[in-house]
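Residues pack. Consider this:
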Amino acid sequence: MIKIEIPFRLPSLNEYINKLKHNKYIGNRFKQDIDDSIIWVLKSTKQKVDKPVKVKFTWYEQTKRRDKDNVCSAKKYIFDALQKAQILPNDNNKYIADIKDEFVYKQGDKVIVEIIEI
């Protein structure tokens, strides 16, 4: 099992869409900056995955202001960063067998990602 803690709040889908509405280049830069921030966290992860996995996301949110679907939309950033960091070969159905989301409130902002090989 690989357990990764992303120690900051990731932007919601609404935040990304608003950047794209303003300017597609700003939206692209916004997503790249997020990916780079996650990759920086992933640098300490030495394990690689080459088999199908189950992925559990535990989303820590300080408040309940953001809708759950907007919060967990950030898994797109995480999966892209896992591929760029070469921890996960791809995020298609061949490698991702199952995804679970759990939400915890009033304990700060972060994401715990658990990757379990099947």
Remarks:
- The beta strands are 2-6, 53-61, 96-105, 110-117.
